[in-house]
């Protein structure tokens, strides 16, 4: 009997790499990983050719335009990858009865909340990146009813560029570092999210819709940086500053903690605390 095929886009990103690390634990599936040179997700024809060739049972879309500040000026590119391409993938998924898992972001919310956002809370992105990701969610769910959208936040891992690796680099070289302390959220170790994808797939009870996933606990960026510093025993002084002192082209939501109750109850997923997962990642780094 042929094995069910899982296609993963964005193989060079944090999530793509973490999924690749899990392949040997799931011998019952045939995995195919693609980067943008191997599969241009913005090209509907290229997607159809890939679907015709591999006939995937699942498609995990981790490919995204993630340069939040650049998205303010590179709007066309951000929209093409985060919205239009997602729509293309979802359309092909519907045509081939493929189940889609698509990754979205906490940036679909405006950050004015005071308690963890639920999946059905009103969306209102405050920057263009958030808007394109929100459009991607809409197109994915409209074009393919068999879609799970997973919103995540503050993703880091041993791969790619992320906050944890940036802090490690800067703390080695500097005596002082300023980090914003008025943006609150929950970090996500990409390895944990990759494992959650596979847990959803192997349970055989695919329940379409929007879900939230991150590690448990809420902190601000300064507290996150301080935890990294303490774990590595760096002597660098980490100073808390308000966002106003660190202006960026794209506005950031001040509060983007998400409620993870839905994904926990639907798929029996156990969340790890951000402290536990940070320690694991730092160990690997």
Report on this structure:
The chain has 285 residues and is α/β, with parallel strands linked by helices. It has a single domain (5-161, 188-214, 256-272), classed as NAD(P)-binding Rossmann-like Domain (Rossmann fold, 3-Layer(aba) Sandwich). It is 39% helix and 17% strand. The strands form 4 sheets. A 6-stranded parallel beta sheet has the order 2-1-3-4-5-10, with helices on both faces. Helix 1 crosses helix 6, helix 2 runs parallel beside helix 3 (75-95) and helix 7 (221-232) crosses helix 9 (274-284). The longest helix has 21 residues, at 75-95.
By CATH, the architecture is named 3-Layer(aba) Sandwich
Question: What percentage of amino acids are in beta strands?
Answer: 15-25%
- Report the sheet with the most strands, covering strand number, pairing sense and barrel closure: 6 strands, parallel
CATH first level: Alpha Beta
Strand order of the largest sheet: 2-1-3-4-5-10
Average pLDDT, rounded to a whole number, is: 97
Q: Structural class, judged by helices and strands?
A: alpha/beta
Topology pattern, helix = H, strand = E? EHEHEHEHEEHEEEHEEHEHH
What is the CATH topology?
Answer: Rossmann fold
How many domains make up the 3D coordinates?
Answer: 1
- Characterize the overall form: globular
Based on the structure, what is the oligomeric state of the protein chains?
A: single chain
Q: Superfamily at the CATH H level? A: NAD(P)-binding Rossmann-like Domain
| Rg (CA only) | 19 Å
Number of strands: 12
Q: How far from one another are the termini?
A: 40 Å
Q: Helicity range of the residues?
A: 25-40%
Unreliable spans are none
Count of DSSP-assigned helices: 9
């Amino acid at each position: 009997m042929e094995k069910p095929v899982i296609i993963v886009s964005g193989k060079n990103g944090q999530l793509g790499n973490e999924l690749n690390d899990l392949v040997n634990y799931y011998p019952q599936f045939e995995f195919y990983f693609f980067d943008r040179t191997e599969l241009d997700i913005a090209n509907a024809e290229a997607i159809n050719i890939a679907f015709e060739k591999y006939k995937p049972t699942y498609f995990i879309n981790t490919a995204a335009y993630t340069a939040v500040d650049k998205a303010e000026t590179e709007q066309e590119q951000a929209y093409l990858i985060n919205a239009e391409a997602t729509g293309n993938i979802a359309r092909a998924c519907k045509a081939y009865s493929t189940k889609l898992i698509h990754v979205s972001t906490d940036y679909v919310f405006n950050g004015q909340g005071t308690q963890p956002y639920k999946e059905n809370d009103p969306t209102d992105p405050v920057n263009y990146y958030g808007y394109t990701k929100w459009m991607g969610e809409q197109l994915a769910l409209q074009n393919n009813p068999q879609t799970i959208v997973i919103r995540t936040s503050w993703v880091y891992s041993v791969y790619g560029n992320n906050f944890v690796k940036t802090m490690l680099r800067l703390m080695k070289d500097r005596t002082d570092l300023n980090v914003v302390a008025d943006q609150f959220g929950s970090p996500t170790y990409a390895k944990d999210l990759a494992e959650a994808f596979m847990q959803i797939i192997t349970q055989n009870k695919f329940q379409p819709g929007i879900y939230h996933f991150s590690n448990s606990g809420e902190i601000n960026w300064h507290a996150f940086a301080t935890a990294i510093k303490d774990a590595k025993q760096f002597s660098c002084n980490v100073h808390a500053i308000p966002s106003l002192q660190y202006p960026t082209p794209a506005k950031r939501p001040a509060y983007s903690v998400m409620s993870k109750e839905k994904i926990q109850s639907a798929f029996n997923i156990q969340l790890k605390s951000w402290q536990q997962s940070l320690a694991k990642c730092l160990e690997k780094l």
